[in-house]
Design brief:
The structure holds 3 protein chains of 3 kinds. Chain A is an alpha+beta fold. Chain A has 8 helices and 7 strands, in the order H-H-E-H-E-H-H-E-E-H-E-E-H-E-H. In chain A, the strands form 3 sheets. A two-stranded antiparallel sheet of chain A has the order 1-7. Chain A has a two-stranded antiparallel ribbon with strand order 3-4. A two-stranded antiparallel sheet of chain A has the order 5-6. About 16% of the residues of chain A have low confidence. Chain B folds into 2 domains: 82 residues, Winged helix-like DNA-binding domain superfamily/Winged helix DNA-binding domain (Arc Repressor Mutant, subunit A, Orthogonal Bundle); 90 residues, Arc Repressor Mutant, subunit A (Orthogonal Bundle). Helices cover 48% and strands 12% of the residues of chain B. In chain B, strand 5 and strand 6 form a beta hairpin. In chain B, helix 2 crosses helix 3. About 3% of the residues of chain B have low confidence. By secondary structure, chain C is of the alpha+beta class. Chain C folds into 3 domains: 197 residues, Aldehyde Ferredoxin Oxidoreductase,  A, domain 1; 221 residues, Orthogonal Bundle (Aldehyde Ferredoxin Oxidoreductase Protein, subunit A, domain 2), CATH 1.10.569.10; 169 residues, no CATH class. In chain C, the strands form 5 sheets. Chain C has a 6-stranded mixed β-sheet. Chain C is globular. The model of chain C has no long low-confidence stretch (mean pLDDT 97). The chains are: A alpha+beta, B alpha+beta, C alpha+beta. At the A-C interface, helix 3, strand 2 and helix 4 of A face helix 3, helix 4, strand 13, helix 7 and strand 16 of C.
Chain lengths: 246, 193, 701
């Protein structure tokens, strides 16, 4: 019961942020606006008042994206340092929201599958891993049992709300590119939030290897790093069913 | 360069200012003629009758006055060229100006400036490179002509131990010192990394 | 209780004899020495008695970094390695080397400011540091392997993100001229044999922690951006190499090579370096190309990109791809290094068929890097190559080797400039094979001694660049007159100080340098134009002291003295001024320990004087002026007999140098007759107990 009340509060908050203060069923919203669920840029996230829990399902697309040119990466790690020093007050590459260190020495494939060809010990190519700011369905957000990953205007980046994060790390397991970070000191997840529109990593890169561009869907363009553990809390699964059933 | 800003309120003839800035960004100075063409074109679209009697030169002066980053340099013959100090240094603009005056002036002025200012001799090879862009023949012909003209007698040569020629001006450097500096630039600095 | 920022807080200690591992508190024990060489010298003073030899188990090797390591402070990626130096002749004394790459940052993230290793393991081991979990592990399977395989196998065990610092066969064989290397191309010369003597194959670190910035994060961001805004190219050269539209000045000696038409050609597709206006902080990495600087324009076609240490935007290492070498020599197409490491192979040859900057020379560099960076051989700032050339061409070598060994080398290939010769030579140095291999691995001092060649021979000859105690000069009078000479007297190996030479070579016209000099050192007379030296003066003494202190400060904070200090900048709007308070600004913000420039310089002075004290103690004399701070005759002998201190010669005047040393000692608060710090100076610098100790032995004037 307490959880339902919390979920309703989450939804109300989300609605407020988006300027919609009435409760509307998801289906009726679509009927009103005449838009479809898939592939349109101006969708609005909302909860459905259906008498049950109202989980937050992110529908918005992000406005921007940091993309990376691996041929320019010079392996200085200033992106990781700027991300964490300027946002968190500590130099913590393990926690960086753009990820270079893990590919630095031996490339993406690393050491265990085949002779490495990339990275500093290979041909020098360093792949920078960046958050895709996934469109709906957003894996990290949907995996969160607490609706702690929200959309933040004006960039509509997918952002961890630290107040709600309980540190369960389900989001870490859900991301196919292993882009979730975890702040060990705070025991909270964190992720790329585009620094409110002026990404610090882009500003910090001395080789112009990073760019902040208009969002485009790269989820099917970048090979997955891992097979993610896709777990959706039952409330969200129910919402998926409600929304998508014919 | 942060010294000068593009003015907030653009001049009516901002096209000329923009051309100067764009060219400066790519390392070029703009001749007065080229600007006059633009200004005449812009003038043609003016609706105020009073403007019709103003010369392109006057318009250019107005543009210069309104855009503090724009600068003028003139050749010895008085031909004017323009650049933006936001994107180009005076040194570079004068170098390009010298190019307008011909290879001999370019070489001589560069060598004298180097010998006086830094001070240092000038590697002959630098004149083949941008922005000097002289051909081998032009350089050789320069050297020949300078050796026969009184006003260029100060331009002299030394060779380093690896056979590279450096020029210097005796107005500012003596031979011994020029040779030592040439050797330091050409060989010494690499042997003392 | 607030934890300090900057420092990780713990010093890791390992006794390989006892197999014991424990930690100390950095702040409690070492705060007054900052980190890096500061901690190194403190440990050597406190714990390594005079008379200890480099390969004794009682010698300690200290890998230490400073509070700025692991942060985003530019150029904060170097690890200082302090120990008794095996190539220091005739008596090993304390010295330090430095290793860039990613080791320093990883050590901090693991939670350590320093690693102090003592004793000797009873069998080959390697040290595994994974945050708090530190283990001494069996290295018998790695022993005998080169640096590359050892790194690979250790990374397999620790994960691909671990940073592995390992020795090659040279270090295992206790070759004094050997290195420890991390991150492919970043080595510290002289340390390999020390590790080998402890049966320590490698130190590998994986750190998942962080370095806290004590100050306000917005202030930190501003400070970092200030630092970035005044950066030049490698060695803090602040003008471009060729005329660029934005630039008022340029200099053919500058390492700021970026230009329209110069491209990283072997990047796929090629990347234009372009004009790199200094305000474009996103293009700092394109300014420098040391492969092209040293190997000529021909290196651009082979350039993949720049490379280097954590946090540094300069990328002074160049990654080159030379396809021809794969078929020709059977080595990988890729090679990377900088400076002496890049030139390792080339420097052995007197001539190449197509010149010092032709294709063959580039191939020799590739072969050299391939061999030396795996075998783990050091070159002592290219001294070993200069020695080799001299000894071959003057016939000494032939006489010393004996017929059989001499014939075992393909000298015809060597004389022709055939890089395959290196395959015959370098492995023999690493494996101490034969008279030549062994001799070249000793270090110049011991090499000359073993061949009965008086050191005086080397000290007479300018082209050998030898200075004293088995090591070469490192930026002396050719760069900065008396200041350079003074600096080169002060250490127990080559000085490795760039504070002065970074400034004098920054490419600004001498009148601009003089203007800056008057602000920094009190008078425009601190600086002369190169080769137009004027008599010694007080300002030059101040500049000498500043240069040395800042070097120690950088080596203790973890800032790269090959890049700093940053007292000149490429910015015309700043009058080309840099920022002399930069180190104290970064230090204060990172640690929360507010110190202004002079206060921090005083800490550096403490560290530098401690080095002096150890040297005095271990030499067993206070007569530093006559017995340690020596200057080779070639410094004051012009080949053409030109009078010194005139235009056209860099050679110095003996009397003027005597005066220079007097003034320098005065600046330092040292006794003029002996060059030894006085009791007062030790007390002033918080080294009272050090002073008392030395006084008891009669080493304080």
């Amino acid at each position: 019961m307490h959880q339902q009340k919390e979920n309703r509060e989450i939804v109300q908050k989300a609605l407020k942020v988006l300027g919609l203060n009435q409760s509307v069923t998801r289906r009726s919203f679509f009927k009103l606006s005449g838009i479809t669920v898939v592939g349109v840029s101006a969708l609005v996230s909302l909860g459905a008042k259906s008498g049950k829990e109202m989980p937050l399902i992110i529908m918005d697309q992000a406005e921007g994206l940091v993309i990376a040119d691996s041929t320019k990466c010079v392996g200085c790690r200033r992106c990781e340092l700027a991300c964490t020093e300027f946002n968190d007050g500590k130099a913590a590459p393990t926690m960086a929201r753009i990820k270079v260190s893990r590919n630095l020495h031996f490339g993406l494939k690393g050491l265990y599958t085949e002779p490495w060809s990339k990275g500093k010990w290979g041909n020098g190519l360093i792949i920078q891993d960046f958050c895709k700011q996934c469109p709906h369905p957003v894996p990290c957000a949907n995996a969160c049992p607490n609706d702690a990953i929200v959309v933040k205007p004006p960039t509509n980046a997918r952002v961890v709300d630290a107040d709600k994060c309980i540190g369960c790390k389900m989001c870490q397991r859900a991301c196919p590119w292993e882009m979730m970070s975890f702040d060990q000191d705070e025991n909270k997840a964190t992720k790329c939030f585009l620094c409110n529109g002026t990404p610090k990593c882009v500003e910090a890169c001395p080789a112009e290897a990073l760019q902040y561009v208009a969002w485009r869907d790269l989820t099917d363009k970048v090979p997955h790093r891992v097979v993610p553990t896709t777990v959706i809390p039952p409330e969200k699964a129910a919402a998926c069913n409600e929304c998508h059933k014919k | 360069m942060k010294e000068d800003k593009i003015p907030d309120r653009p001049s009516q003839h901002q096209g000329a200012a923009d051309i100067i800035r764009e060219k400066s960004k790519t390392g070029q100075i703009v001749s007065a003629e080229e600007l006059f063409l633009t200004l005449r074109g812009e003038k043609g679209s003016e609706s105020e009758g009073a403007e019709d009697s103003v010369s392109p030169e006057a318009l250019l002066n107005k543009v210069m006055a309104e855009n503090k980053d724009l600068r003028e340099v003139r050749t010895k013959e008085g031909c004017a060229f323009y650049y933006s100090s936001m994107f180009m240094s005076e040194t570079y603009a004068r170098l390009l100006l010298c190019k307008q005056e011909g290879p001999i002036q370019l070489v001589a002025d560069t060598v004298r400036e180097d010998s006086d200012r830094y001070p240092r001799p000038t590697p002959l090879a630098v004149f083949k490179e941008p922005p000097f862009d002289l051909s081998k023949e032009e350089i050789l012909s320069c050297l020949q002509e300078m050796s026969s003209r009184v006003e260029y007698q100060d331009i002299s040569q030394v060779s380093t131990s690896i056979g590279h020629v450096f020029l210097y001006s005796t107005r500012h450097l003596d031979r011994d010192y020029a040779l030592m500096l040439a050797e330091w630039i050409d060989v010494g600095q690499f042997e003392n990394p | 209780m607030a934890t300090k920022g900057g420092w990780a807080g713990k010093v890791l200690r390992v006794d390989l004899s006892a197999g014991r591992i424990w930690t100390e508190d950095t702040i409690e024990k070492y705060k007054d020495y900052l980190g890096g060489t500061g901690i190194g010298y403190k440990v050597i003073w406190d714990e390594v008695p005079a008379g200890t030899k480099p390969f004794d188990p009682g010698n300690k090797i200290i890998f230490a970094v400073g509070p700025l390591a692991g942060t985003g402070a530019p150029s904060s990626g170097r690890t200082a390695i302090t120990t008794l130096w095996p190539t220091c002749w005739p008596k090993p004394l304390v010295a330090s080397g430095h290793m860039g790459g990613h080791f320093a940052a990883e050590l901090k993230y693991a939670g350590y400011d320093a690693l102090i290793i003592e004793g000797k393991a009873d069998r080959p081991v390697w040290l595994s540091i994974a945050d708090k979990k530190v283990e001494i592990r069996d290295a018998r399977g790695l022993w005998g392997e080169g640096i590359r395989r050892a790194t690979y196998e250790i990374n397999q065990l620790m994960g691909p993100e671990a940073c592995v610092a390992t020795i090659g066969q040279a270090g295992e064989n206790l070759v004094p001229m050997s290195v420890v290397m991390n991150s492919v191309s970043h080595s510290a010369g002289g340390a390999g044999g020390i590790m080998g003597s402890k049966n320590l194959k490698a130190v590998a670190v994986r750190g998942t922690g962080s370095v806290r910035i004590a100050g306000n994060k917005e202030d930190w961001e501003k400070a970092i951006k200030l630092h970035l805004s005044i950066l030049g190219a490698n060695n803090q050269h602040v003008v471009p190499n060729s005329p660029q539209p934005w630039a008022e000045y340029y200099s053919a000696g500058s390492r700021w090579l970026a230009s329209k038409g110069r491209r990283w050609e072997k990047s796929n597709p090629a990347i234009e370096t372009g004009s790199c206006d200094p305000h474009h902080l996103n293009r700092i990495a394109y300014r420098t190309n040391n492969a092209a600087y040293f190997l000529g324009e021909g290196a651009w076609q082979y350039t993949v990109r720049g490379n280097g240490c954590t946090s540094c935007p300069i990328r002074c290492h160049t990654l080159i791809k030379v396809p021809a070498v794969a078929a020709k020599y059977g080595i990988p197409e890729h090679g990377q290094n900088t400076c002496g490491g890049l030139n390792f192979g080339r420097a052995f040859f007197k001539t190449f068929p197509d010149g010092q900057r032709g294709q063959t020379a580039i191939e020799a560099c590739m072969v050299g890097m391939h061999l030396a960076d795996d075998l783990g051989i050091w070159n002592n700032y290219s001294q070993v190559q200069r020695d080799f050339i001299k000894l071959y061409y003057d016939g000494t070598l032939k006489g010393k080797l004996g017929e059989k060994e001499f014939k075992s080398y393909s000298w015809d290939k060597y004389e022709k400039g055939d890089p395959t010769f290196l395959f015959e030579l370098l492995p023999r140095i690493a494996n101490k094979e034969g008279e030549l291999g062994t001799a070249l691995g000793l270090g110049t001092g011991y090499h000359l001694e073993s061949w009965g060649i008086p050191e005086e021979e080397w000290k007479k000859e300018h082209s050998l660049q030898y200075w004293k105690m088995g090591h070469p000069k490192h930026h002396s009078n050719e760069d900065a007159g008396q200041c350079g000479v003074i600096i080169n007297t002060q250490y127990n190996r080559d000085a490795q100080c760039h504070s002065h030479s970074n400034f004098t070579r920054n490419g600004l016209p001498v009148e601009v340098q003089k203007r800056l000099a008057s602000e920094i050192w009190g008078s425009a007379d601190a600086i002369d134009a190169v080769g137009a030296y004027t008599p010694m003066n007080r300002a030059k003494a101040k500049m000498s002291k500043w240069s040395l202190l800042r070097k120690e400060l950088h080596d203790s904070l973890s800032l790269c003295n090959w890049m700093g200090p940053w007292v000149a900048s490429p910015l015309k709007e700043r009058g080309y001024r840099g920022e002399d308070t930069l180190e104290s600004l970064l230090y204060s913000l990172a640690t929360g320990d507010k110190k202004n420039r002079d206060e921090l310089d005083q800490v550096a002075e403490r560290i530098f004087n401690l080095h002096r004290a150890i040297t005095i103690r271990d030499m067993g004399t206070k007569e530093m002026r006559t017995r340690h701070d020596t200057i080779p005759p070639w410094v004051s002998g012009d080949a053409q007999g030109r009078p010194s201190l005139t235009k056209g010669t860099i050679h110095m005047d003996k009397e003027d140098i005597t005066n220079a040393m007097d003034m320098y000692y005065e600046e330092m608060g040292w006794d003029k007759a002996t060059g030894a710090p006085t009791a007062l100076t030790y007390r002033k610098l918080g080294l009272a107990s050090v002073g008392e100790d030395l006084k008891k032995k009669g080493f304080v004037p």
